[in-house]
Amino acid sequence: MSPIRLALVGLGKIARDQHLPAIAATEGIELVAVASRNATLDGVAHFATLADLLASGEAIDAVALCTPPQGRHELAALALKAGKHVLLEKPPGATVSELGPLIAAAQATGRTLFATWHSRFAPAVEPARAFLAARDIRSVAIEWKEDVRVWHPGQEWIWEPGGLGVFDPAINALSILTRILPRPVFLTGANLAFPTNRAAPVAAELDMADTAGVPIRAELDFLQTGPQTWDIRVETDAGDLTLSSGGAKLFHDGRPLIDERDAEYAGIYRHFVELIAGGASDVDVTPLALVADAFLLGRRSIVAPFEY
Amino acid sequence: MSPIRLALVGLGKIARDQHLPAIAATEGIELVAVASRNATLDGVAHFATLADLLASGEAIDAVALCTPPQGRHELAALALKAGKHVLLEKPPGATVSELGPLIAAAQATGRTLFATWHSRFAPAVEPARAFLAARDIRSVAIEWKEDVRVWHPGQEWIWEPGGLGVFDPAINALSILTRILPRPVFLTGANLAFPTNRAAPVAAELDMADTAGVPIRAELDFLQTGPQTWDIRVETDAGDLTLSSGGAKLFHDGRPLIDERDAEYAGIYRHFVELIAGGASDVDVTPLALVADAFLLGRRSIVAPFEY
């Protein structure tokens, strides 16, 4: 089978840091075009917008949308309408309700729609899921604390409505949580701290539960300096399981089980190629639905202004 | 078939104004118990809580939950676990994610779960749906403006997280909108005004679209004095269709088609009896998902404090 001809839409930090090397390393898919208003890539056809690309007649099979979430729905709808397979960076959109029509459009056109959650491809995730499937789970504690100035330097969109603020990284934790736990999770309460000058929260505390009543607590902070924390600790009848470094490491009662280099995006593109080959889609809205619920049910507080 | 023996949980304003007369007027269902901390009803068994009722051995087949939305999930889960059919007042819960497990529990126990949207039983709704199915729709304008002091006197829960503020009435408009339009609706933007001293919005503007790109605009206000407005105007290729008075009246280009007395709750209980007889459930989370999206994507502003 000839490789899938992919166009990348958006050529910002995540596209350069993660997508480009992952695409280059994946069998069965090749980058043939880029749509970006400001950036170009040597040796690859360039267009200012996805609409220009589609109008050009450039032969592509699929698009990967790496632009901010606020405009993702319009681009995805356009690409599906043009008969292209679509890969969505996380979060898959600015709202939950915009995803239903995209799922329907993918079904109607027989194209693949893949709403990626890159953290689910971290090496500790599937082993943790297997471990927890057979355990009595007592509690879960998530600590997701990073420095926005280091990881999202100058990114203004993240503070706009739909940009999610601290939930942009924390939705990764929720994507792991909802993958490794054996039962559905729902939100029971939240506190959200909004900077006076921003439309998205800079910190949050979430209380959740699963359907067996297991308490799940998450502490999220976007202003963590010094050591950065991306940990999920699960207390079970067979000891504590800890996923740390965003799922790169796994510990059982402090004993390391897994400590691997990050290969999340390679996993994403491998899965995208498989989905297209199988004529399937993969869209799980659960992590974004939990974030929407946190905004819905969360008690808001106003905190100090944030500037980069 | 002997009538369904129903217990009412919560005996506040909505239960007394609407549920009691509708139950009394509906064939096939009878009120046999009430669970309420403060209120009792002559001639009907009384319990302080649903848990007390279930523990008492009082013979009931179904419960109707008329308590505020914040505790609804726990009560519904308890009732389903005890093998009872469950009717949920709107909104069906404090979050969207809590409803999945309830749907699963109803399926697992073979019991009926009915998430009611009373405005969908207003007389103009089904005729409007039939009219619009065959029309080219140009735009939709919702105006939902009422005086919270008149319609929710002293209700503090409505201003708490999960109480929804102005979305408590406006979700009725969204429940009609998503019933009468032929295509799915999603949110594209929102502005939410929060009183300085309250956790829920007192006013909002919503921008939505359907999958054909029809623009849908909603203006919501909880401080409307004088005439109250609960109108949905749909501009079509065959003239303007207006549902007013919350769906009690229907106009085509200003000409009245329908003007009926409210019988929404009678419709609800008739449907509940049918669902139980057919072994079916009816849970549409769409209106609540749109509200969650409005909180997720909405730009917040802070306005004057609200006191009753």
TrEMBL record, chains A, B:
InterPro entries: Gfo/Idh/MocA-like_OxRdtase_N, Gfo/Idh/MocA_oxidrdct_glycsds, NAD(P)-bd_dom_sf
Gfo/Idh/MocA-like oxidoreductase N-terminal domain boundaries: 4-114
UniProt superkingdom: Bacteria
Pfam families: GFO_IDH_MocA (PF01408)
PANTHER family: BCDNA.GH03377, DEHYDROGENASE
Protein name according to UniProt: Gfo/Idh/MocA family oxidoreductase
